[in-house]
Amino acid sequence: HRLARRRRRRRRLHRRRALRPPADARAAAEQRGADHVALAGDPSGVGEHEQHVKQAALGNADNIEFGSGIVKLYKAEGKKMNWVEQGVGMLVWWSSKFGDEQRFRCLRVSDMHPILDKELYDNFDENYTCTKTKRGTHFFHTMEFEHDVWGVCFAREADASNFAQKIKIMAPKGDPKGGGKKDKKKEKEKKEGGGGWFGGGKKKEKERE
Hints:
This protein is α+β, with helices and mostly antiparallel strands. The protein has helices spanning 2-18, 25-30, 34-37, 43-58, 157-170, 181-192, 201-208; strands at residues 64-77, 82-95, 102-108, 114-119, 128-132, 139-144, 149-154.
């Protein structure tokens, strides 16, 4: 297990060294992008639209918001892990009512189309970094998921700071002895019929009897 962890850490380190904030990240912080600026003719309309998009990203009314903000979203693509812009959207970090699920969901500002929807895993904070742009004026946030890497530049510094501070404390934490979020989920599936000898759990076992 230790050897596997070391290998994973080396791969992550190599991946991080290859990633650098995109050259136009500063532009994202100075303006909210073409989609958002189109609404600037009516300042009150901008605020109302933001709230509408945020509520849509939050989804269920019982979900608890940990952070949100207008961002320019990027995805690392290709062997060289080049940043490719995905659009300007409202990023919302939320947790389910009982805390068994946390997600990053980003809806494009112009049409509320989802451009990012990922569940946070145990110890997610270990693969979430904030690095300054070349000019050192703003921070670029990088986050690694199981199969891809994403990056965001926030339009407002307050939103960026909120994410950076809370991610260390409120992101899902794994338990070295087991009992992390994934372990609890598996245990719940077994109780409700997702486990057992043939994947049927206790319910299926009773039916076979």
